Amino acid sequence: MVDEKSKLKSLSNIASIDITLEFDAVLQNILKITCETMNAHSGTMMLVDENNELVMVASYGLAHDYPKRVHEAAKKAGVSLTFSPSGAVLETGKCYLVPNVFKEPRCTPWDDLSKEFGFSSQIFTPMKRGLKVIGLLNVYMADPHHFTEEEINFVTIAASQASSVVQNARMCTSLKSNIQELKEYKERLEEKIKETHEKLYDSERYLRAIIESSLDGIAVMDEQGRIEFGNDSFFNIIGWPRKKIIGQFFIKIVPYDINGFCLNMWHEVQSGAGDRSEARIKTKDGEMRYLLVSHALAEIKGKKKCVVIVKNISEYKKLELELKESEARYRELFENASDFIWTSDVKGRLLAINNSGLDIFGCTRYEIIGTHFSKWFTPESIKAIQEYLEKQISGEVVEQPINVEAVSKNGGHRWLEIGARAIKEGDSITGIHGIGRDITEKKILEQRLKKYHEKLKKSYEELKEADRMKTEFISNISHELFTPITSINGFVELLHDDAMGRVNDEQKRCLEIIHRNADRLSRLIKELLDAARLEKNDLEFQFGFVSLNSILLKSIEDIYPQAKNKQITIIQNIGPLPLILGDEERLTQVTINLLANAIKFTPQRGRITVTAGEDTDQIKISIRDTGIGIPADKLSRIFDRFYQIDGSTSRKYGGIGLGLSICKGIIEKHNGLIWAESDGNGSTFHVVLPKTSEEGNLDA
Ligand code: ADP
């Protein structure tokens, strides 16, 4: 048997086994050292598994298939391993000695195996943790053997060592797996942290992009109101450069007059009140801007902050202001318009009316608003208005305003001219908008005018009738006068020619005076008759080709004695003129009349110039005198019937004011023109006659 020294060495060897080796190798080593120290034939080590079954974990000096053979033998014998000495150790927790296997009943099932493998004695030692048997260390000797106290002690110590190793190894394994788990956990954690970091980074980037690209200004202020951060839009909106504002109190950009108001608001915001307000600020260049400010309190890194979002609403404010002004202007216009303006709903209930309207209806706004228009018009007008509005609503184009009769509160009637149009919202009509004016005065005037007009018309008709009767009378009386004068002249001539016996010279002179005056009378009657016939358009004309040269010469010759009487010179400036189609007697009547007037209104030793010439399509005759002239404003009137410039002239110069009107009538019958001119040196009468074409057509 082993000595003390090698036993100790063996134990120290066992203790110094590298337990970091594989678990099986460690157990194998312990078994090997124990068996070698014991000079044993062989040995086994078994452990109790979780099912309380024994499992061989190491063997020494035995063939590989030994454990399998042990189990097979047990099966063959119909016993379990617990029947073996190992089972006894498990039960008792103590060593089990088998000095001779062939004499040990517990070994009987495996006798053959013992013989075959060549061992004869065995020691079974428990491996324990506390009181619990966790396995067995078994040493087999070749010969039958009585195990000594020392040998038992040694194997027991070795078993206890093995038990420690098993426990350590088990702990190690579990530690190892714990460490592995921890490692994996750590890796997973690191992965997670990385992921979270990335997410956080992404969301921060995202948030930053939003803040930077936002059109709204975004800023952060500290608890005292100092601006700590602002995006580009913020600085654009407030109109201050970033470096002038960061770190400054917000009040710096607030106009002085609303400092107090803004500070109050700041305190309210700090106490959590309100989330939106309007504010006015001043840019660096002094421009006023209106902002819409939203704010929210936030805690960033343990400090209270105020996040502010601003929008520039200056344009909107400006528009709002303009709108207000234009509304006020419109209201002013509406209220003070001289026309009456109203709005009604589609059913005709009045919704609005201006002051002029109230004046017309003689009522207050309170009395008229909400009433139906029919309350304020006569039945006939209501019908007219209804038809008019229906047309408007049905979309018919009605441009003409209508005249209607309104009834005021106290029953007075007024005439109104009204126009209206439908108020449309999209496709539907929501009301009627109208304008009107009081035309009562106009109506009264119109009525008066109408009456006046009727009266005038009647007078005109009466006058026309009187004029016709006068003309009729003149033409009748002229005829009646002509006959006696012809007879007077005939008898005067007979007397003058001594046909009724001899008359002396004095009597002859008397007869000559009678004859001259009768002649003058007959001329006047002729004029009257001509004028009357011209007016009735039945003066007869004998048209034929006539020479104006001979007409002018004959007229001058005829008139010559009168000119000579007043020592008036007649200057002729007459070129050769073509024949024209005309009435010789009537044209001669015109030239004689003009020449006679010239002589009549020209003083002694005056001068008369007769000019005549032609151009392409007309002949012009002018008779100019150096007489009393004609005032400019009378030039056209002298051609009117019975017109004489001055009543006194008729007495001084004679005549009845018909000559020129007859001349005008005759010239117009020849499609010609006659007019007069006058300057400080006398008058000129012009006559223009159209030339006659080859065919002699007057209407050329
Ligand atoms: P009366 O027979 O009265 O002359 P007329 O019709 O021939 O009537 O002339 C109308 C009026 O025109 C005359 O009364 C005269 O006042 C004015 N009148 C006509 N011819 C001349 C003239 N050559 N010079 C100045 N006044 C003239």
Largest sheet: 5 strands, antiparallel
Give a count of the beta strands, DSSP E runs of length 2 or more: 22
Distance between the termini: 181 Å
- Tell me the radius of gyration: 76 Å
Bound ligands, named by name, code or SMILES:
adenosine-5'-diphosphate
On the 0 to 100 scale, the average pLDDT is 89
Beta strand %: 15-25%
User: What general outline do the C-alpha atoms trace?
Assistant: rod-shaped
How many helices? The count is 19
Report the helical percentage.
Answer: 40-55%
Strand order of the largest sheet: 2-1-5-4-3
Structural class computed from helices and strand pairing:
alpha+beta
State the low-pLDDT regions, or none: none
Short descriptors:
700 residues, alpha+beta, 5-stranded antiparallel β-sheet, 23% strand, rod-shaped, binds adenosine-5'-diphosphate
Description:
The N and C termini lie far apart (181 Å). The chain is built from 19 helices and 22 strands. Helix 1 (4-15) packs antiparallel against helix 2, helix 1 (4-15) runs parallel beside helix 6 and helix 17 packs antiparallel against helix 19 (659-669). Helices cover 47% and strands 23% of the residues. The strands form five sheets. Strands 2-1-5-4-3 form a five-stranded antiparallel sheet, with helices on both faces. It is an alpha+beta fold and 700 residues long. The radius of gyration is 76 Å and the shape is rod-shaped. The model has no long low-confidence stretch (mean pLDDT 89). Bound molecules: adenosine-5'-diphosphate. Adenosine-5'-diphosphate (ADP) is lined by residues 597-598, 601, 625, 627-628, 630, 638, 643-645, 649-650, 655-661, 683. Adenosine-5'-diphosphate (ADP) binds at residues 597-598, 601, 625, 627-628, 630, 638, 643-645, 649-650, 655-661, 683.
